[in-house]
Amino acid sequence: MYPQVTVITPTYNHALYIAECIESMLNQTIKEWEMIIIDDGSTDRTADIIKKYKDTRIRYIHHVHRGINFLGEVYNEALNLSKGEFVTILEGDDFFPESRLERQIPVFEDEEIVLSHGLIANVEGGNIVCYPSLCPKDVRNNDPIGCILKEFLAGYNPIATQSVMIRKSFLLEAGGFTQPSNLPLVDYPTWMRLSFLGRFRFIPEVLGFWRRHPTSVTMQRSDEIFDSFIRYCDEFVQSFKSEIEASKFSLSRFVKNRGAIGYLALGLSKLSGKDWDGALKYFKKSWKRKKAVNKPFQMRILISILSTYIHLDLPGYLIKMRVLCMKKGLNKMPFVIHSSRNGHH
User: Fold this and answer.
1) pLDDT value at position 207?
2) 180: burial class by Cβ within 10 Å (0-12, 13-18, 19+)?
3) Do residues 237 and 266 make contact, with C-beta atoms less than 8 angstroms apart?
């Protein structure tokens, strides 16, 4: 049986979650897949749990621990071993709905589609929270080609890794997965390069479940990630100057004002830590780049600036109130909170 899809699964000390991750693949309605699990030197029971699965579609590779800064090498190792026409990513603490592959593969009948993505649900303790996409349809579909870059350049990643499927030929054309120095992620640098090669296709359904917990990289190193991403945007603009200028979608305004949302996120981090001066510094940088973002984001920046002057984490307070209202059924905000894990597949 030749695999249609290669599933790349990096893992490290995911003993609590790796079984659910693997089971979500075994339960797929489409069976023509391979799963390449690369273990970055786990010291818990991760390896023992993986070895209990005797399915020939699952390949397990164990390495000495290198850390998250070598994630790009891990992804590209798996890519070089892959046999599937399409590539998707399933980290060891996440899982897929059982119809994921069946729902996504047909999108690629259009041979010009480079990448497909959809909604994800955040798994936070006993709750599953699904947020809507904030981007218009044309941006989500990268149509015209290159237009999704305006979101990336602002500092917002509209493509959830847990929902992505990529045509491997285009990924190889882009040079494989990209991990810039000092950035412990490979997703949006890779998506940015792919955005020049063709259209994307957004599916408005939950295609992956992302588990958020205190030990996750995005929770522990958010400041570093946003700071490094802003610097990568500068590098990207210099490296792909000719492609940006040739894009059918005018990117000059977004290039000039790049980093608006990234600076807002850094400011919010400082605000939550009651570093009022540090927060104000980043909010002012964000406001100077406001032409790169829409009116709701501009209003968010203004509210954040106000918060620094009254010494109150007002954005954080509003988010808490929003979630509390949803739990009590007091409004109809477009996201769903489930209090039980039963039946999420």
Assistant:
1) 97
2) middle
3) no
For residues 325 and 56, which has the higher predicted lDDT (pLDDT)? Answer: 56
Which amino acid makes up residue 120? Answer: I
**Residue 208 forms beta bridges with which residues?**
120
Spell out the long-range contacts of 214-220 with Cβ–Cβ below 8 A and sequence spacing 24 or more: 215/13, 216/93, 217/68, 217/184, 217/185
* End-to-end Cα spacing for the chain: 26
Greatest Cα pair distance in the chain: 64
154 with 69, same domain?
yes
Side chain identity at 55, as an amino acid letter? Answer: D
Q: Which domain holds residue 195?
A: 5-212
> Within this chain, do residues 276 and 186 fall inside the same structural domain, yes or no?
no
* Mean pLDDT of all residues in 109-114: 97
136: preceding bond cis by omega (within 30 degrees): no
**How many residues are listed for the chain in this entry?**
345
In a domain, 345, yes or no: no
pTM of structure: 0.86
